[in-house]
Amino acid sequence: MSFTYVGSGPYCYANSLAMILAGQAPPPAVIEVLTGSPYGMQLIGGRLPLFDSFGWDPEIGLGDAIGLLGWECDRVDGGTVSDALDRLRQACQDGPVLAGPLELGLLSYQPGSGKAVGADHYLVVLEVGDDTVLVHDPQGYPYATLPVDAFTQAWRGELIPYLGRPFRMRHRFTRRQQVTPKEALLRALPGGLAWLAGRTDVETTPGTLGQAEAAERTARLVEDGLDPEIRLLWQAFAVRVGARRHNDLAACLFSLDLDAGAAIAAEQARIVGGLQGALVSGDDKALAAGLRRLAPTYERLRAALIAGEDTKHTRH
Hints:
The chain has 316 residues and is an alpha+beta fold. It is 51% helix and 16% strand.
């Protein structure tokens, strides 16, 4: 089956939400699964392959996870820089604030920063002073500080495609219902099946493909010569987060006694994780072959989850 991974990884919004909910938070692995991210693969605009659900983005995912866990919060954005900072400063007086998406490339305490690259990121703001902002950045920077101007430039998120308005933050988190992690995961299953089937209520960039089509087309892109920028993104981010998402999904499905689905998710985790070595070594033949092994697993996972749900209903 699968073996739980513990270690660093780019789980910025899941880790940020876990910090905000503190002692009432489930593990970040559960939060990640509740966002719906592990249920698929997408090739955005026919060019950018990511191991998350077709039509999914972190804003959709965060909203879903917060609700499934029985929480609600205020989500605010837009306005001038001055307005946004005033809101943030006021909100921090009541407790930490979940801010994002921000532009990762403009967070000045991160090595190699200084250029906007369209990399989205979430973090927790602890305090806004006259000249600096104090944050817990789940990328590995507790109590990091950066100048107010640098923070607002990152917070504007101009190159983040799914961010309609700048300066987004979530605060005033209130628990409206006591929900256990297992209950939340059970509630999330219909949403997971909807992602696997291809949701029609989400906007996608023209040319975007999902699931098996995305994997097959990405394999052809690899064989034709993968864009160097995409290769770097995959090496640094996409494969790592994809393998971890699938592995966490496997563990969560196993906890729900959906063993067949868990086995397929574990298989997906092994396939995606196995792409990292081929990426770094430049073995594009192995990379394309791995993607083609991955392609049919999404429909297999959907079928297994449907069968597992039907079996549970029959028993009851």
